[in-house]
Amino acid sequence: MEGGQTLSIPYGVWPDPINPLWSEARPYRSPMGGGQTLSIPYGRFKDLKGSKLLECLSVYDRSFIYMPAFSSSIGIKPSFWAAQTVADASANQTVLFAHPEFLRRVSAFWAARGVSARRLSTGLFMVTLALSLCDQVDVYGFWPFSHGPDNKPLSHHYYDNEPPNSYHEMPQEFKQLTQLHDSGVIRLQLGNCGGVEHELSH
């Protein structure tokens, strides 16, 4: 398929937290590159030309843009739009589409473990993918509650500050991640990524 590619990444250490595309945080470099999800690019750029998307992506140099194009019918058009925009511009970024069978199997895996969501969050998909590719997985920014560990209010759904929806079961996902952390499978990092890291206590 033109524009989208399959994922092929060598083993390595999971990168530092993925800086939000729309923040003023400095871009980072890692063996795996950066990442973004479907809802942000299309939501912000659906009424604009692709040049705006390319402008924002340019700070990320050689990065991956992960898009679950086939997770729902509404994801197909924006995913191909973003992939074609990046491909036409010969940009440094690479758009990756999740294979439908991967989406199905990951959903079934977590459903068998008590995550009864209509649709898993992209974050849990990415953690699952990382566990299959990486020797070490550090998870940042995964917090399902309205207030952080420091009791300060938090926005939901990246920087859109949308209320929690009925598609995801974030508390169930968080419970699974804490169990993985407690068993030493992942390192779940809490707190402000710009300051001192706080690893979840055992």
From TrEMBL:
Its main location: Golgi. One of its GO terms (molecular function) is alpha-N-acetylneuraminate alpha-2,8-sialyltransferase activity. Pfam families: Glyco_transf_29 (PF00777). One of its GO terms (biological process) is oligosaccharide metabolic process. The keyword Transferase applies. Keywords: Glycoprotein, Glycosyltransferase, Golgi apparatus, Membrane, Signal-anchor, Transferase, Transmembrane, Transmembrane helix. It is found in: Golgi apparatus membrane. It comes from the Eukaryota. InterPro entries: Glyco_trans_29, Glycosyltr_29_Sialyltrsf, GT29-like_sf. GO terms for cellular component: Golgi membrane. Pathway: Protein modification; protein glycosylation. It is a single-pass type II membrane protein. Belongs to the glycosyltransferase 29 family. This is Alpha-N-acetylneuraminide alpha-2,8-sialyltransferase-like. It comes from Clupea harengus (Atlantic herring). The lineage of its organism: Eukaryota, Metazoa, Chordata, Craniata, Vertebrata. The gene is LOC116219229.
